[in-house]
Amino acid sequence: MENITKAFYIAGATLIAVFVIMLMVYMFRQAARVGENYEFSEARENVDRFNSQFIGFETSEEARADGNEGTNTDPKYASDVVSAINLAYNINTKNHNDPVNFVEIYVYWTTGGIRYSLINSENARKNTLFEGTDTSSYISTNEFLNLEVNSGKFLNDTKLDETTNKVVYRYYFTGRVRYNDDTGRINRVEFTLNENEDF
Prior knowledge:
The protein is of the alpha+beta class. The protein has one domain (56-195). It is 38% helix and 27% strand. It contains three helices and ten strands. The protein has helices at residues 2-55, 78-94, 141-145, and strands at residues 104-108, 114-118, 128-131, 134-140, 148-150, 153-154, 158-161, 166-169, 171-179, 186-195. A hairpin with a 4-residue loop joins strand 7 and strand 8 (166-169). The longest helix has 54 residues, at 2-55. It starts with a helix and ends with a strand. Residues 62-71 have low confidence and may be disordered.
């Protein structure tokens, strides 16, 4: 009888120990999931914060030079292109031209091809753009702002619309952003030049 009682105590203690171990494993796994969820949430916030710096350069296809279409349809101007270039240059420099965490800017003319760019290169300089994608040929951002697009028509040409009392630009840009498939970060901003037909 005494042996049976001891056996019951031993079996009970073993069951309790196994139950406590299972409970500890369960709690450890739950704690690990909380940590994973926190890390994922933190990483997603970092990506969203990074992308928010560039998402403002994107415009919809309905963007007009007068900017009256509403949210995310406001056209971009040469100064916006320069802002994007300086922001991308600073990020690329900060990341030491990391081949994963970079942003490139491409400026297209409506008559085809990349006209100017800031690509991820150690040859990039502050306040400059590459001509095309040639990393040995530069144009300064000031030269870009004062660029003659067609004979007698300059990128920064403006006039005052007397009916609305607003400044109207001869040229505007539509912007498009591209994302890195692996990181979810914006890694490319493309600007396309358009001429305002109402100028």
